[in-house]
Design a protein that fits this description.
- It is a single chain.
- The protein is built from 12 helices and 14 strands.
- The strands form 4 sheets. Strands 3-4-7-10-11-12-13-14 form an 8-stranded parallel sheet. It has a two-stranded antiparallel sheet with strand order 1-2.
- The chain is globular and about 50 Å long.
- The chain is an alpha/beta fold and about 375 residues long.
- Helix content is about 30%, strand content about 20%.
């Protein structure tokens, strides 16, 4: 998993963790499905953002991701043509404000970005990494964070013990805060860290001793699925519901493994799928594992009613400078029924054109 430390124009730090995944179990076969994209009428205010209706209409106009950068303001984001936006709620991190608290978009600013509820705006939430520019970190200086303090990775990421009640409480408090601002849902990043804990490779625990927790890779996958479901349930208590998008972790259901009762395993993954509306996967196209990743995403998510979003970076391709690369990646994603977004790199400091502009003649079926 890669980790970028990004600074806002106001010098606030935002960490963005993205990565792929490796299945612990096998895969089966599937066939490509629908083609995408055709501009459609906007959502009605406070439309319930479900898989079938509002989310489908929003994604027909493509999505975009931005966390910081020049012009990272409500006014500029409101002008973006994308049907759905994934954004960072903090304009300035807690380490860089006069009062030591995050400076979040206000409720009025969120309404401006969402065009008074007619365009879904999804707020970033990291479920497994400790971010020292958040208010909860400031608050922890007067308490004892050891119950949710986890190890550092080889990339110097500080992980939280995501299965503990203390970390869950921190996340649910943030969920309440974000939803109260009027965001239409949550983008749950670093779900894949269940795999970091599951393998245990390169983890440096504080005091050299891990805390009690899941004792196997399947156990960690199950614990992460449970956390996602709790976050989803809390967010969906909002009067307008909530769109829940998880980042990566395509193989989490398979990694959770079967138990003595295969029906129980199927029910467990079905419950997880019922709590999310979409999964975003990065670096699919052009990768060595493209075929198996596409197949797993179709079988485990797309064919079960969960939208699949793809995010690829032109800087990862040898021919990144060619004019046709962005169109080619978009076309490959559309061919297998995914909703694509193509960025130059992982900086997330600007918005790139939505898929609906790159392929205006493709119809969403």
């Amino acid at each position: 998993m890669r980790k970028l430390l990004i600074m806002t124009c106001a010098a606030a730090g935002f960490g963005v963790g993205f990565g792929g995944g490796i299945a612990l179990l096998g895969q089966a076969s599937a066939e490509p499905l629908v083609r995408l994209f055709n501009p459609t009428p906007p959502l009605t205010p406070c439309a319930t953002p479900t898989r079938g209706g509002a989310l489908t209409r929003a994604l027909a106009r493509g999505f975009g991701v931005q966390y910081w950068g020049d012009g990272y303001s409500a006014a500029d984001l409101a002008k973006a043509p994308h049907g759905l936006l994934i954004v960072e709620a903090s304009k300035v991190g807690a380490l860089h404000t006069a009062d030591g608290r995050e400076q979040l978009f206000t409720k009025d600013e969120v309404a401006m970005i969402s065009r008074d509820g007619t365009r879904p705006v999804i707020a970033y939430l990291n479920v497994a990494e400790i971010e020292d520019y958040r208010d909860y970190w400031v608050n922890s200086q007067s308490t004892d964070p050891r119950n949710w303090f986890g190890p550092r990775t080889a990339h110097d990421e500080r992980l939280a013990t995501y299965w503990t009640p203390e970390w869950e409480a921190i996340l649910l408090e943030r969920v309440d805060r974000l939803m109260a601002l009027g965001f239409n849902g949550l983008f749950l990043d670093d779900v894949l860290h269940y795999y970091s804990f599951g393998t245990g490779t390169g983890l440096d625990w504080p005091d050299g001793m891990p805390v009690d927790g899941p004792q196997s890779a399947p156990g960690h996958a199950r614990a992460m699925m449970a956390l996602v479901q709790k976050i989803s349930a809390r967010a969906k208590e909002s009067p307008c519901g909530a769109i829940i998008v998880v980042n990566n972790g395509a193989y989490i259901g398979r990694d959770a493994g079967p138990d003595s009762d295969d029906k129980a395993a199927q029910a467990r993954f079905a419950s997880y799928l019922g709590s999310i509306d979409a999964i975003l996967m990065e670096n699919i196209f052009g990768s060595a594992t493209e075929a198996q990743t596409v197949q797993a995403l179709q079988e485990d998510y797309q064919h079960r009613g969960v939208k699949v979003l793809s995010l690829d970076y032109t800087s990862h391709f040898q021919d990144e400078g060619t004019a046709r690369l962005q169109d080619d990646i978009t076309a490959r994603a559309a061919k297998v029924g995914f909703v694509p977004y193509v960025a130059q790199n992982e900086a997330f400091d600007r918005l790139y054109p939505p898929s609906s502009e790159l392929m205006p003649d493709q119809a969403l079926q």
